[in-house]
Design brief:
Length: about 120
Amino acid sequence: MSVISAARIPSQTTKQPAEIDLTTLPEHIRQTVENALEAALRAPDNDVYFDHMTTAITASGIREPRNHELARCACTSCYCDVLYDADDPDAWTYTDGVREVPQCPGCADRHPGRDAE
Ligand SMILES: [Zn+2]
Ligand SMILES: [Zn+2]
């Protein structure tokens, strides 16, 4: 009897969402994700940066981002607080005159921001 023909475990990544609304996560998970994202911003080097990204990715349960980097929507039109793949081609970034504002794919579709002069 062979066990080799046993059904293969489906790829873990297929069922995971490409985007997660931070406000829908349980409070303690949201805190872990937010802390990791903030720590990543202050990371002194890439290794530490990606360590924190790993924590945020694992805790949130989001699908593995293309370049292992998450972005958090900072849209000023709706404050949606969506976490998404920083390299999602449907996402959008604009400048409000002071800083870069990342927008999740949903916001980029509904109300893309325009660069301020
Ligand atoms: Zn958004
Ligand atoms: Zn928005």
